[in-house]
Amino acid sequence: MRKMKDILIDERYRIDYKIGEGGFGLVYAGTDTKLGDEVAIKLSHVNINPEIIKAEADTYTVLAGGVGIPRVRWFGEECDYYALVHELLGPSLEDLFNYCDRRFSIKTVLLIANQAISRIQYIHDKGILHRDIKPENFLMGTGTKGNILYTIDFGLAKEFRNAERFQSLQGLPFGGTRRYASLNNHNGREQSWGDDLESLGYVLLYFACGTLPWVGLKAATEAEKDELIKKKKISLPVTELCGGLPPEFATYVSYTRSLGFNDRPDYAYLRRLFRHAFLNSGFKYDNIYDWTERRFREMQGDSPENPSQT
C-alpha cells in the first residue's frame, strides 16, 4: 500500500503533512514541485461519497475570483482518491481563538463580523448556501493577504434553487454543526439565506463570550442532545443570550431569525449594525486583531525590561 507522501498529485503536487479534516475528506499541506510554493490538498477516497467532493469542486468553480475564496489549482482523480488542490491559507479562526486563550475582544469580533458578512453575501449572490458556518471554516490568509478572511469547506453547500424545491418539507435530516446550527436546521426545515447568517451570529457570540450557553450539554444520544440544544436556543431570550455585549448583537440575532425562506437578507444593514457598534466603542479600523497584538508582544519579549509598545 502506497503512503500518502509517495503520491504525486497531477505529477506536481507533493503531499507533506496532515493539517486537518474537512467535510468528507482529509486535508494536507503540500508543495507544488514546479513552482515551489505551498498548497492545501483535500483528499477523499473514490468509494466514499464521491459526489460530495465533486460538488465542492463545482462550488469553488462558481465562486472563483471572489475575495476570500481560495484559488483552486487542480481537481481530479489520483490513486483511488479525488484530490482538490488550492492555495494554502493561514490558521482558522478556531486556531486563533485557542491561541488567544479562547476569548476575543469585542474589537476583533466586530472586525471578523464585517468581513464574514461580506463573504457570506458573495456566496449567496452566486446562488450558493454554505450550510456549515463555523469557526473552523473561516481561515485567515497569508503574507500580504494575512488580514483577509477566507471561507472554506463547501462539502455541505447547496444551490438555493435546489433548496427551494424542498422548502415546504418537514423532518429533514440535520446537517452541519449543532453548536452553530440555525433553529430551522434543528427543526428539520430546509435552510435558506438567513440560516447561514444566524449561524454566523452564534459564531460571533462564541468568540465574544468564550462559549455558548448550550455548549457542554449532556445527553445519551445525538438526537437527545440536538433536542436539548434546540430547546436552549429557543427558550433563552435573545437579550440574555447577548447580555453584556453591544445591543447590536441582539438586533443581529433577532433579525436573522426573523427572515423567511425567500427573504433576502439586507447584508449592508447588518454590516452597518456592527460598524455602528465598532465606532461607538471608539475603535479604529487598523486591521489589528487580538492575535496580531499577541504575536507582536511575543516578538518583543513582553516583560518589564522590554514592555510592549502596543
What brief labels describe this structure?
2 domains, Transferase(Phosphotransferase), domain 1, globular, six-stranded antiparallel β-sheet, 310 residues, alpha+beta, single chain, Phosphorylase Kinase, domain 1, disordered C terminus, 11 helices, two-stranded antiparallel ribbon
Overall description:
The chain is an alpha+beta fold. It has two domains: 8-87, 2-Layer Sandwich (Phosphorylase Kinase, domain 1); 93-290, Transferase(Phosphotransferase) domain 1 (Transferase(Phosphotransferase), domain 1). Helices cover 39% and strands 17% of the residues. It has eleven helices and ten strands. It has a six-stranded antiparallel β-sheet with strand order 1-2-3-4-6-5, covered by helices on one side. A two-stranded antiparallel sheet has the order 7-10. A hairpin with a 2-residue loop joins strand 2 (13-22) and strand 3 (25-32). The longest helix is centred in the middle third of the chain and has 20 residues, at 106-125. The N and C termini lie far apart (53 Å).
